[in-house]
Amino acid sequence: MATVTTEGTVGLGLRRVSASKAPDQNIKKSDQLAILVDISSCIGCKACEAACAQWHDLKPPLHTEEKLFTGYQSGPGLAPNLFMYMRFQEVEMDKGLVWAITKYQCMHCADPGCLKACPSPGAIIQYTNGIVDFDHSKCIGCKFCLSGCPFDVPRYDANNKPWKCNFCVDRVSNGLEPMCVKTCPTNALHFGTKEEMLIRANKLLEGLKKRGFDKAAVYDPPGVGGTGYIYLLPHGDKPEIYGLPKEASISPLVSLWKGPVKLIGSIVLWGTLLGAFLQLILFGPIKVGKKEKKEG
Amino acid sequence: MTNGWNDIKNADLVLVMGGNPAENHPCGFKWAIKARQERGAKIICVDPRFNRTAAVSDIFLQIRPGSDLAFMGGLINYVIQNKKYNEEYIKHFTNAPYIVKDTYSFDPATGLFSGYDPEKRKYDQSLWGYELDEKGMAKKDMTLTHPRCVFQLMKEFYSRYTPEVVEKLTGIPKEKFLEVAKLIAETGAPDKSMTHLYALGWTHHSFGVQLIGSMAILQLLLGNIGVPGGGVNALRGHSNVQGMTDLAGEGRFLPGYLKPPKASEQTLKDHIDANTPKAVDLSMNYWSNYGKFYVSLLKAWFGNAATPENEFAYHYLPKIDKVIAMDEILDRMYRGKMEGMVSIGMNILASNPNVKKISEGLAKLKWLVVMDPFETEMANFWKYVQDPSKVQTEVFLLPSAIFAEKEGSYTNSGRVIKWKYKAAEPPGDAKDEFWVAGQLWNRIKSLYQKEGGKFPDPILNLTWNFKNPYYPTAEEVLHEMNGYALADITDEKGNVVVKKGERVPGFAVLKDDGTTACGMWLYSGVFPQSGNRAKSTDLSDPSGLGVYAGYGYSWPANRRILYNRASADPSGKPWSPKKKYIWWNEAEGKWVGHDVPDIKPDLTPDYGPFIMLPEGRGRLFAAQLVDGPFPEHYEPFESPVENILHPKTPHNPVVKVYKSDLDLLGTPDKFPYVATTYRVVEHFHYWTKHIYGTSALVPKMFIELPEELAKELGIKAGDIVRVSTARGSAEGYALPTKRIKPLVINGKKVYTVGIPIHWGNEGVVKGALANMITPFVWDPNSQTPEFKGFLCKVEKVKA
């Protein structure tokens, strides 16, 4: 429900750009944005899921044959035409049954594994406000971003372009809250600066502890430098019941890639691109027998 | 709702039983969350399934479908035995001290009240009245010790509902029951209040009205009616179903809960005399104004044709003794006693029990008009008929506008009437109801003008004062509902308070002499001469109690909490500074507070707060209900266990039983599991499956069943299973779940199977109609079908 009032939250300067040198750090510093998901107040109504699809003009998959996800969950999860979904899991805990219902989407890591893994300059960008976004015009479809993501988020369409939550960067940069936050009927979603959200989360955390949730915790995994989505978890000692990794961190392969392998990788990559270019000018474009039907 | 949505935030305890607001009222449920976050309120959910509400509740109790009254009886017993009731409140604000006639009795062995006629399946309710003194006032014993005072009768009646009995009937362990009973009973303290939220989980029973009555008793005992954060709150299912009910959506009523004439009431005087109660205590007895509302309604309908000489055209109204509600309509249709049907905004086939009986009934009609935004199951009912080739019914489809394509008002669960503006034009040939009504009316009228007919007068003389008679506007209709003066209206001193032709400021000025017209007395005041108050959007709330008096208009008289005089003690002082709402200002000699007082402002505090009742007091004993003055536990019509309280009378003894060849009931030997139907938040009835976006959220008809049962039957998640009852079967995808556990009912293991209702043959996604399997059994007070708690079997069809 919050509207952005803090000066500088628009923050569309670039903080990080994939496969590039760090941008000029003299740009205006802006606050990091965050969404707080208060699981203890979330009723799993999927208003956010519907609103997300509507705002981004997506036609989400219709899982009429899917066996495993019969019932409340709309399907097996994220898709190139489904940037967020509600995840439902029944868990028997010491104090009784828990129906863990979690809003799941890109976490907008402060230290984004996708961006670090991306070999294509400028295909993944992080704005100074913390939002991590894709630039499809620069994406080469290598899928490295998926292997770099600790939360298994990006999904590829038929053209091999990855899709994910962009934190409604279009809305946010125009002073509006993200669509999911606007839609939430029970105030389980809060939007503001990371600092404000942490204060709010800790206040709500106190209330939860008073209600007997002594293991309640705020989920803001340090392994990725903290996230743009933070969660208030009633059973904070077991984030995995909400589908969140206990120790979220970037795969060591990405660090490797950033190191010595990068050079080799680059040679291979550019070699491939050169080959493709030569193919194009020498023989023309490869004919695709049957055009793949684009999902959605 | 006695209170309102916003008022839930004032509660210290939120009891959700008979509803699933997180699922079905997600926007309203935010107030429950607010009560917890801001006041530390606890949320307790009692339901057959661990549902979305349970997921965010502090305590969840799993109850066997159809055993809620046993739980309520247990709570009432607990409160009485442990003296947790608010004694002052029940002495002065309820009929607890009233002496009941000695012709009333209840036999615990048979489970019957006095006066039962097994032939007619009816009670003689006159045996259950109060003892009256020579002035016609109810006799009272303010010490509450008289053996026939309501309090003592109630104490004895509910003494059978011990925690052990509750456990045996509901499957809720005694300790869990006592833990919750203690929390609930604590709200009997003057500075605490509990709100109760319910919906179709309580009305969909053959004893639904009694269930709600039992909560009224509990809340009266605890002094939780009329106070902020209290009340018995019906969460209505559609955005405007409250408005529909207010405007006589049920056959039992005319607009504003006035009564249709009976055969025994041939004159207007007969009717008004029969329906104007006489006060039996110090009471405002507001229904004493019945005649004013009735005559004003007749004036609104028949204008100049309604004169004092012709009893305001009372003779135009049909006189019918029988209540013709949905059950009767559907049964008559099946018996071939109906020629045609016009269905507007309703999917009769999908929404009512026993689809087979309804589809065969529809096939017997000569014609059927279905007005709907979509081609519904009802429009294509032939798909459900055994032999479609023989269907001769001519079906007319009228495409209609959806809610966003027309202007008008909504009345929400909290009785707030709010204006809604048109957002878009309806597509193609679709039209709104105003247009259709205008066209139909003019054509029907001209046919009567040309051809005469049996009784043309009521049609020819009906008021139709619209600028464009072929297309009335919503505001013109609201004008008629609000009411207007047909002559200058004066007060006692002779001052003109309303000029002829102007709209009335409220129902208080309505007259029974034909000088006022009012189409809906309860809404009177929503559209005074100064403007349409449903359009007001003032969000100020000076008391901080969520009154929002300037937001829309809440009937009656813009009151947000009903019976709010009861928020003050018998002398008029607030029960507690924490719950201060309406109080008596001694110096000024009037009631003041944060809301519109629900009593005449200068009426002294000795008058009862329940102004609509001749007692002026809330009823712990209600002789008006056809199935007994105290709510008693009866089993659903199909039950897996015997009624341990009285095996000879297992079911509600006055439920109307239908006996056609398709009205079949099952027994536990063939159908061992309990089934219950319900909704999911992603869908709205049978509507949203026509929309891609909502279909994608929950695309498949699924059947929830306990993991243990699934294992027993070799069923895995996603297998196609068939649920069958004596009426028919429905197939869906299995969802084995931990959220429905097997229960132990009086030593017997009982499984509950859950069936969401939203699918059918039409739409983006398709599935079975849940009502293929539900029983054609109805509550005798409200004529609501028993969708919760019937018997089924389950089998695997395909892995």
Q: CATH first level of the largest domain in chain B: which class?
A: Alpha Beta
Q: Helix- and strand-based class of chain B?
A: alpha/beta
- The helicity of chain B comes to 10-25%
Query: What portion of the residues of chain B fall into strands of 2 or more residues?
Result: 15-25%
CATH classification, class level of chain A: Alpha Beta
Mean pLDDT of chain A: 87
User: What gap, in angstroms, lies between the N and C termini of chain B?
Assistant: 46 Å
- Contiguous helical run count of chain B: 21
CATH superfamily of the largest domain in chain B: Dimethylsulfoxide Reductase, domain 2
Low-confidence stretches of chain A: 1-9, 288-296
Largest interface comes to: A-B, 41 and 42 residues
Number of domains of chain A: 1
Please give the order of strands in the largest beta sheet of chain A. Answer: 9-2-11-10
Helical percentage of chain A: 25-40%
- The average pLDDT of chain B is 97
CATH topology of chain A: Alpha-Beta Plaits
Largest sheet of chain A: 4 strands, mixed
Explain this structure.
The complex is a heterodimer of chains A (296) and B (799). Chain A is α+β, with helices and mostly antiparallel strands and 296 residues long. Chain A has a single domain, classed as Alpha-Beta Plaits. In chain A, 26% of the residues lie in helices and 18% in strands. Chain A has eight helices and eleven strands. Chain A has helices spanning 47-55, 113-117, 144-148, 169-172, 179-183, 194-210, 252-258, 260-283; strands at 14-17, 33-38, 85-93, 96-104, 124-127, 132-134, 155-156, 162-163, 189-193, 217-219, 229-233. The mean pLDDT of chain B is 97. Chain B has four domains: 6-237, Dimethylsulfoxide Reductase, domain 2 (3-Layer(aba) Sandwich), CATH 3.40.228.10; 253-320 and 473-533, no CATH class; 326-412 and 416-451, Rossmann fold, CATH 3.40.50.740; 673-798, Barwin-like endoglucanases (Beta Barrel), CATH 2.40.40. Chain B is globular. Chain B contains 21 helices and 29 strands. In chain B, α4 (68-81) packs parallel to α10, α7 crosses α8 (174-186) and α14 (326-334) packs across α16. Chain B is α/β, with parallel strands linked by helices.
